[in-house]
Design a protein that fits this description.
The protein is of the alpha+beta class. The protein is built from four helices and four strands; from the N terminus they run βααββαβα.
Amino acid sequence: MVTYVVLAKFTEQGIRNAKDSPKRADAFKEMAKTFGVTVKDIVWTQGRYDIVTIVEAPDESSAMSLNLSLGALGNVRTETLRAFSAAEMTNIVGKML
């Protein structure tokens, strides 16, 4: 599984309907399952981003399909970061010259 950190900002539509955000998060979790993606955590934040989500996907195309499907709903715009566990990072730096 590949881990991603998804940073989200409300669109104008999304902020107008901010009261529905927890319900939309539940719907997002269900949508993710259809792509084989597991939502590990969703938190709402103050500052530059409104929502931070941690997901695990079987591959990059599953993660991309989920993000495009989410964006098409019009409530948030996302920035997705590939994340590495400590074990993965140990392996990566072990290959350095």
